[in-house]
Amino acid sequence: MSAIQEMLSARGIGVMDSIIVTRELLGAGPEALGLAKTLVLTSPTRHTEREQHQVLVEELVVAIDQVDTQT
Fold first, then answer.
1. Is the CB of residue 50 less than 8 Å from the CB of residue 58?
2. Beta-carbon-side half-sphere exposure of residue 16 (alpha carbons within 13 Å)
3. Which pTM was predicted?
């Protein structure tokens, strides 16, 4: 599955579309979505996307904390 993730990333396929493709390749069963997400997001080729996601999450946590202190 890592070769598929490398190919999808090299072709510029985004994370969400890669998750959908991977889920279909896994058979689209009940656990396929979670596994597909894990496979895509833990792929070494998605390092930049993981970093961007982490920054976004941290900024959202700070924003939520600021809203909570204002109310």
1. no
2. 1
3. 0.74
